[in-house]
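Holo prediction. Input below; ligand is adenosine-5'-triphosphate.
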Amino acid sequence: MLPADPHPAPKHLHPPRATGGLLPWPRRVMVLLNPRSGTGCALQLFHSQVQPMLAEAAIEFTPFVTERPNHARELVRDKDLSQWDAVVVLAGDGLLHEVVNGLMERPDWEAAIKKPLCTLPGGSGNALAASINHYAGNTRATQEELLTNCTYLLCKGLYAPMDLVSLSTASGKRLFSFLSFGWGFISDVDIASEKYRRLGNARFTLGTFQKLAVLQVYKGRLSYLPVEMSLFPPSNGLPIHILPQPGSSLEDPLLVPFDQPVPKHWTVVPEEEFILIFAIYQSQLGADFIMAPSAKLHDSSMHLFYLKAGISRLALLRLFLAMDKGTHLDMNCPHLHYVPVRAFRLEPFTSTGLMTVDGEPLPCEPVQGQVHDQLCLCSAAPCLSAPPPPCKSQAVPFPQLSNAQRHHSATR
Ligand SMILES: Nc1ncnc2c1ncn2[C@@H]1O[C@H](COP(=O)(O)OP(=O)(O)OP(=O)(O)O)[C@@H](O)[C@H]1O
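Structure of the complex:
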């Protein structure tokens, strides 16, 4: 039995919720705003679109405008979070990455990481917001429509568990990731197009054409634990050591130290020359970029893609165009491999270039990671029993309402 809520909200603010009322109705939220995200409109969007919806849902907020990189990370790491029911991020995926890692750096990380998170799209990519919109069964939305959809979920008090991936590097770094790890083409596009952030989502199209012109090959060894092997591991293939994790007690039981070979039941990819390696744990990499159509907020999987060297520029361009609708796997491209995994290790042969974690740069070095199921909570509609097909308009569990209708509905 749950204890009675000492501060029950007025009855009209209690719609039935996916979580079965397990979480308190959000009454006070911390709002982190990045004035440099995307086209630089986060503050304006907050005042014009989000604040009126919060007011109608009787949700109080404490705004924090980030002043520099890592400011959000420090705020969530150092503040007393008990005064807020949720942490809201109106920015891009990069700021949410800071928030997740700031929470995991706290001495009370086990409780802190269960503080509900809400992503409101204000950046250029907004991959998690676009994925959450997709999971809700909505038609594709961008910009202000996507912001309204995500704010609506916050106002309704809908939360769902989300997987996080723990990443460790050979030099001893530990990071947590909710979206992606990458090396090669996609990561290069992300980093190279950073300077065009003010173009919004169009920065990725421009970056793709630029990087196609100077296509690079990346050499390294990729190993992974397929999901099916993790369900039935052979008794002689289990890791011998549990990797000790500096600064955190969350262990990665699927991983072994870098000086040991990966366990025997892992797959080692025979090829060692790649155009890209990309593990994504949500469906979208952007509003127009459905990379893993079957992914869900929590499915205990990383969706690992790798593209072998030797693909022509034209074939690569066709693959990327198909990702607009999430049909790239239907093209049966012999260079493209896809496998859902629970863990991976990537050992680059040279340390040139950058890797990316949730779109943020990471110096190139050996990296390994594993999924942690349902480690955090995120503002989202309840998971549908089967993932919706990728490119059709969906039936509407979360109705396509006008803003005014949504405001009304959020307060009923
Ligand atoms: N006031 C600030 N000035 C400069 N940089 C900041 C400031 N506040 C936060 N940052 C940094 O800006 C970076 C990018 O922010 P964010 O992810 O919000 O936007 P984006 O890059 O446009 O969106 P996306 O990550 O979706 O592509 C973050 O890594 C964060 O550290």
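The longest helix spans residues 42-56. That is the main takeaway for now.
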